Structures are given as C-alpha cells and as structure tokens.
Amino acid sequence: MRHLATALTASVSALALTACGVIDGVGGGDSSASPKKGNDITVGLLLPDKDTARFEAFDHPVIKKEVAALTDGKGKVVYANAEASQDKQSRQFQQMVAQKVDVILVDALDAKAIAPDVQKAKDAGIPVIAYDRLAQGPIAAYVSHDNELVGEIQARAIIAALGSKAESSKIVMMNGDPSDTNYAKFKDGALGELEHRVVIAKEYDTAKWSPAVAKANMKKAIKAIGLDNIAAVYAANDGLAGAVIEALKDAGATKIPPVTGQDANLDAVQRLVSGEQYMTAYKPFQEEATRAAEMAVYKVQGRDIQFDALTRDTVDSPTEKKIPTMLVPVVSLTKDNIKDTVIADGIYSVKDICTPQYAAACAAIGLK
Predict the structure, then answer these.
(1) Which stretches in the chain have pLDDT values below 50?
(2) Which of 67, 84, 190, 310 could form an SS bridge with 155, CB 3.0 to 4.6 Å?
(3) What is the pLDDT at residue 26?
(4) According to the model, what pLDDT value does residue 37 have?
(5) Cβ contacts of 336 within 8 Å, gap of 6 or more
C-alpha cells in the first residue's frame, strides 16, 4: 500500500555531458560500494527494452548527464539494455555486481525473476534502486510515477470521449505484460473507471509489451466484435496504441475510434496531432530520470538528508515493506496541451513534431 506524504522540494541539477560505458558486458568501475564515497563513483543502469522509445532517447542520456553534473564530471554510468530478454537482463545485472559498480538502477523486465540478482547485489554491498517498475528483493529505494493514476486518466479519457453513449459502448482493453509490476496498477486504475460504465468486449494481455502481439490480438478483436462496433480501445502504452491503430487501418477503418496510450513517444504525439490517437499519459520522464540519478548518487555518497528528501513516500512489494519511494506526477496529454507539456518541457520541439507529413495538422491546432 502506498503512503502519500508531503510534496518534496529538491532542485534539479544542471545537466552536463560526460563519458559513459555501454555494455552487453559491462564497462569500467573498479570501486566497491561503500558509504560516503566521493565523486569517483560508478552507477549501473539496466533498462528493459528498445521498443519503448523513451528509454534510449531520454532516460539513459538524462541519467548519464545528471550523474556527471552531480559528481563534477568524475562519476560515470555503465549501461545495458535487456532488449526484452529476462535472461539477458539477469546476466547484465550479474556482470555489474561482478565489476563492483557502486549502485544499480534497474527497470526490471520481470519483478519476481530479478529478486535473486537484487539479493546478490545487496550481499555484495551494492544498493539497488528500482527504476520505473518496482522489483522484488531487498530494494533500497524506488522511483516511478503514480501508476494507478496512469490507468485512471487513460480510462477517464475514454469515458469523456464516449460521453452519453459510454454505457452501451463496446471497448477493447489492450493491457501490458503481466510480468511487469506496473501492469496490475495500470489495469486496476483503468478498471476502476471503466467497469460498469462501458462494455469491455475483449481484453488481452501483451507479452513483453510487444507491438506485434498487440496487433495480432487487435485483429482477433476486430473479427470477434466487428470493426464498426468498437467504440474505443484502451491501449496501455504508445507502442501498443500504434499497433492497434495499424490493425484498425488494415481492417479498413476510415475513422479511428479513441485510442489511449502512455509515454508520449514522438510518433504518438504526432498521432495526437493527426487525430489517429486520442491521448497518451505523459509521465515527465526527464524528472524521473533526474531524480533517479540524484537518488543513486546520494545513496552512494551517504547524503542521507538529500536522499530522504527525495523519498518521502513508501510502497510495499511482495518481499519488502515500506520501500523509500518517489512518485512523479502524470499528465493526460492530448492535441490540446502539447505546447504546454512536451514542448514546454523541452522533450520535443515543434520542428520535431511537425514534419512535412504533419505540417497541415499542426497548423490546424496552432502548432507552428
């Protein structure tokens, strides 16, 4: 159970670029973990896949820059991406432990399967911070978003789009991967809004958050329900949303029903502009990545006051109670607030979004 606390106030450090090791093996890092280290520290970063565009485009580079900024350019990040393979992520994790990085940030593909690796890290004196998804095992801290709220705002968008026709409307739920600890939170948040308010005609889970799996399942849904009878689609993230929209187009849809998403991927924002996607849950991942880097550095350096200021919430996992936690707010992103969110935050520029293919649609909504 999450226990909310007062909002934290911590300044965002300036970002500065530094060298960074990259692994399928692991690069660099000869310092063992110990409290109150100086700036010569090594942060291990394990991300889960490359299908989610934000991980390579934002999370990794922001964490790398922030670690450098916090350590006068002396700290470094060694990085590995599991490319949707739990076995690969476990090997990468064990390599980082063997090379004695000072702290590990992990976005676990499988929260339960990663637990033995987390235990090995703790036994080696290396704290592990769960990033974006809560992992099992002796996690030292957790940074993410309010993931039930993600599901809630996605579902509310569907209800708002359907209006007075909601109760008789048939929708499809395209959930994420059950091995992802956030899966249940997204789904529970969405069902809390959707149940008894719409007809959930078909519901699917999506192994490894695979767009190909989602597209195949959407084709099944169209065949079972009928293209013209699908009033909306709850898609748990933008990768799934893109696959759903492709399946609808392939089936001959001339008007796409409301489709949700999550992560504010660039292609999803462009689909908002064109009207193909109805909304996406924008999770300010620059703030999440910045805070994760701060937590990692402060933990290794023994800066307890700063660390505690960042982790004023707590969550429970199946194996641990009251894990120090920071939850970053989420925003419902539609074509109407692109300028005030992802553009204002410096995630994308108008030029990034309004390529020639989308120029007319951008002009129509005042993006120029």
Answers:
(1) 1-35
(2) 190
(3) 42
(4) 84
(5) 365
Which two three-digit tokens encode residue 99? 């090379």
In three state form, how does the secondary structure of 305-361 look? HHHHHHCCEEECCCCCCCEEEEEECCEEECCCCCHHHHHCCCCCCHHHHCCHHHHHH
pTM: 0.77
Q: SS3 of 265, please?
A: coil
For residue 100, give every residue at least 6 positions away whose Cβ sits within 8 Å of its Cβ, in sequence order, or none.
29, 30, 31, 32, 33, 124, 126
Residues shown for the chain: 368
Residues 6+ apart with CB under 8 A from 324: 140, 141, 142, 307, 308, 311, 313, 314
Q: In the structure encoding, which two tokens stand for residue 163, read together?
A: 């209006």
What pLDDT was estimated at residue 53? 84
According to the model, what pLDDT value does residue 36 have?
65
CA distance 132 to 64: 16
Which tens digit of pLDDT belongs to each residue from 217-258?
Answer: 999 999 999 999 999 999 999 999 999 999 999 999 999 999
Token pair 């660039």 is found at: 266
**DSSP per position, 175-224:** ---TTSHHHHHHHHHHHHHHTTTSEEEEEE--GGG-HHHHHHHHHHHHHH
Count of helices and strands (H, E) across the chain: 13, 13
Cβ pair 182, 176 in contact under 8 A: yes
pLDDT at position 277 is 98
The closest alpha carbon to 352, from 365, 366, 342, belongs to 342
Amino acid identity of residue 139, one-letter, is I
Q: Which residues contact 311 (CB under 8 A, 6 or more apart)?
A: 141, 295, 324, 325, 326
Q: Which of 59, 79, 50, 63 is nearest to 13 (CA)?
A: 63
Provide the b/e sequence for 186-206 (b: ≥16 CB within 10 Å). bbebbbebbeeebeebbebbb
- 270: CB partners within 8 A, 6+ apart: 353, 355, 357, 358
